[in-house]
Design goal:
alpha+beta; two-stranded antiparallel sheet; 3 helices; 2 strands; 62% helix
């Protein structure tokens, strides 16, 4: 049987090969399976654990994307790139 640390490493390696879209799709599939209620308790818990890993993976990917997004702002007739911020979409910042 694989130890917990080995399982975590294996899970991390699997996640590294996933894209955000494939992870989100799998998360939706897991959600549907759990909501249907046809899985036993043990299988539901395993699916739930897998879902938690997928949520963490997706959150990390979204954070990476957010840090890469830049907004173009026109100041004094010139466009300049500014880092994306939560409140950057407000009209006073544009």
């Amino acid at each position: 049987m694989i130890g917990q640390n080995a399982t975590d490493v294996l899970q991390h390696n699997i996640m590294a090969k996933k894209t955000f879209e494939s992870a989100l799709s799998k998360l939706e599939q897991i959600t549907t399976e759990i909501e249907e209620g046809e899985l036993g308790l043990e299988k539901s818990l395993k699916k739930f654990d897998e879902g938690v890993h997928l949520v963490n993976f997706c959150s990390e990917k979204l954070e990476e994307a957010r840090s890469q997004v830049e907004l173009l702002v026109k100041k004094n007739g010139k466009l300049s790139a500014v880092p994306f911020a939560e409140d950057a979409h407000t009209e006073e910042n544009l």
